């Protein structure tokens, strides 16, 4: 059996207010709300999923919004920057949009020959829009205000900040099949040839940087994509065989997952394409209803009473 990591599956971060988070990602950034559910380990908290029309792997950004959460601090041992792919010529639109909505951003810059525009979400989570060297032909989700000519296509990359990159790089190369594509200063760009997009992991080595502190505005984990459960379990053997502690398979309703903390401190997840986001809502209704896993349906009234209003 050929087992390959197919780039990024999703990225999960922590937010403060759910309503602010929803408004920013659906209205300002123009992503689709794919699912409105709860944190399976803490059902008094939402789990909000954003992405493209059908929640394609490599487009899915999710949040745990903890109302009143302390602000976290980005640092080593965590993912510190999420890159979205956007079309050539779209930066003028995005900078005006950020100005109009008081979004903090920096002037465009360039790394590895690609232009990028850094901005912050309402909780200070760092993201960037990237114009990739190779045109990104993924079909975007569009809104009345964010057209296909400027809309995000899905993930371009994610950056992991580490005190020492060696052990993390070994997992990427020896287990996940990534290769070192380029290096610039203390930034190492790893890429997989298994997929065309959402294929880049940047490792930034900062030995004297403080460790990150989790909280609102920081990333919680990144998930790598595999085709199905059989492939997932092959990777479980590989990861465990390399001496890392990895969970048993966990059912997340829309995918199956394994988790392990890589030696640099970042929580890695491996997640399947199946069964996908169409299992409990019609495609044109995605994100319309609060969906609960079976074990919490009996407590729906109590859960709905404590969740913040999103309307």
UniProtKB/TrEMBL annotation:
UniProt cross-references to Pfam families, sorted A to Z = Glyoxalase
Return the SUPFAM superfamilies for the record: Glyoxalase/Bleomycin resistance protein/Dihydroxybiphenyl dioxygenase
What are this entry's molecular-function GO terms? dioxygenase activity
Query: Domain VOC: where?
Result: 7-132, 154-273
Source organism per entry reads Nibribacter ruber
**InterPro entries membership:** Extradiol_RC_dioxygenase (IPR052537), Glyas_Bleomycin-R_OHBP_Dase (IPR029068), Glyas_Fos-R_dOase_dom (IPR004360), VOC_core (IPR037523)
Q: Does the keyword Oxidoreductase apply?
A: yes
Q: Which domain of life is it from?
A: Bacteria
Does 4Fe-4S count among this protein's keywords? no
Sorted alphabetically, which keywords does the UniProt record give?
Answer: Dioxygenase, Oxidoreductase
The parts of the chain that form a coiled coil are: none
User: What is the protein's name according to its record?
Assistant: Ring-cleaving dioxygenase
């Amino acid at each position: 059996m050929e087992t390959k990591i197919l780039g990024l599956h999703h990225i999960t971060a922590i937010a403060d207010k759910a309503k602010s988070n929803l408004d920013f990602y659906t209205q300002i950034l123009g992503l689709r709300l794919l699912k409105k559910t709860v944190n399976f380990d803490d059902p008094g908290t939402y789990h909000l999923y954003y992405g493209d029309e059908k929640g394609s792997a490599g487009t899915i950004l999710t949040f745990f919004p903890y109302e009143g959460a302390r602000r976290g601090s980005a640092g080593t041992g965590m993912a510190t920057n999420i890159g979205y792919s956007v079309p050539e010529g779209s930066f003028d639109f995005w900078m005006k949009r950020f100005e109009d909505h008081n979004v903090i951003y920096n002037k465009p810059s360039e790394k590895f020959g690609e232009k990028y525009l850094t901005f912050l979400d309402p909780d200070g989570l760092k993201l960037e829009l990237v114009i990739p060297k190779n045109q990104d032909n993924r079909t975007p989700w569009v809104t009345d205000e964010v057209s296909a000519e400027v809309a995000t296509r899905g993930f371009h990359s994610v950056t992991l900040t580490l005190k020492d990159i060696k052990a993390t790089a070994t997992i990427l190369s020896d287990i996940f099949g990534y290769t070192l594509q380029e290096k610039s200063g203390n930034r190492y760009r790893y890429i997989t040839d298994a997929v065309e997009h959402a294929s880049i992991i940047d490792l930034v080595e900062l030995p004297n940087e403080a460790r990150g502190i989790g909280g609102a505005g920081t990333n919680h984990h990144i998930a790598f994509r595999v085709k199905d459960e059989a492939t997932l379990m092959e990777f479980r053997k590989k990861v465990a065989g390399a001496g890392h502690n990895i969970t048993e398979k966990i059912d997340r309703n829309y995918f199956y997952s394994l988790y392990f903390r890589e030696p640099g401190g970042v929580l890695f997840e491996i997640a399947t394409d199946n069964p996908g986001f169409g299992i409990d809502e019609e495609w044109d209704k995605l994100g319309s209803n609060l969906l609960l896993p079976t074990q919490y349906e009996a407590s729906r009234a109590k859960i709905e009473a404590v969740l913040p209003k999103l309307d």
